[in-house]
Write a structure and sequence with these properties.
alpha/beta; Rossmann fold; nine-stranded mixed β-sheet; about 30% strand
Length: about 230
């Protein structure tokens, strides 16, 4: 772990250097996601994401994005109704949870007293009334582990909007401060989660999405990483 005054991100690999025709990106569509903005961000990078809740399409994808906005208990109910709550933890390819998607990958959230998918070994709690809630705006990342999504070189701010946060745990690879330090990014095996919205974070967010897309299936670090 190391300290930086602002966020980071790595790879300069351009989309046209990849074989895009072989990149199948599934965006999990369960009625609680900011899917259009994610689709647009992928399009700007030269990719096309498939909106789907079909288990076969999700299993066969090269990369999976698990978005989420709204209320946790309602979102988890939608996952259970479609059987996605059982599917997601079994996936073997790189999976990126965004905002509520990341929170639902944790053990439990105070929002609606909701049990999550149990992928990340941490709980999600509500910000106290000592600060303005929701936490909304641009923040840098205070502490970063140089691993997979992140590196020292690129800097910038990322866009947050949330009322609940994941506590710091052994899966935390980046933190942000808002009254207290909390997990801004989590990683365990092939599962990744970010509390911020990369699809709404300009060029810095697009770099993170590109880094995620550059990940190899078996958790190898991306090629052409700037150290």
């Amino acid at each position: 772990m190391f300290q930086v005054s602002s966020c980071l991100l790595l790879n300069n690999l351009k989309p046209e250097t990849l074989n895009l025709k072989q990149m199948k990106i599934a965006i999990i569509d369960y009625g609680a996601g900011n899917i259009k903005s994610i689709q647009n961000a992928l399009n700007r990078l030269g990719y096309e994401g498939i909106l789907t809740n079909n288990p076969n399409e999700i299993r066969s994808a090269d990369k999976i994005i698990f978005p989420g906005v709204g209320e946790a208990s309602s979102a988890m109910k939608k996952l259970k109704n479609s059987g996605l709550d059982e599917l997601i933890p079994t996936l073997k390819q790189p999976v990126l949870g965004i905002c509520l998607g990341m929170q639902l990958m944790c053990n439990h959230t105070e929002e609606g007293n909701t049990n999550g998918l149990g992928i990340f070994d941490t709980n999600v709690i509500q910000f106290s009334n000592q600060v303005k809630v929701p936490h909304m705006g641009w923040n840098d990342l205070k502490t970063i582990e140089e691993k997979y999504l992140f590196s020292r070189e690129s800097t910038g701010f990322l866009y947050f909007v949330h009322s609940f946060y994941a506590e710091i745990c052994q899966d935390t690879i980046a933190t942000t401060y808002y009254l207290t330090d909390f997990s801004a990014a989590l990683q365990k095996d092939n599962f990744y989660g970010v509390q911020f919205h990369p699809e709404k974070s300009g060029l810095v967010g697009e770099k993170l999405l590109q880094n995620f897309l550059n990940l190899k299936k078996h958790n190898s670090q991306p090629e052409n990483v700037i150290k």
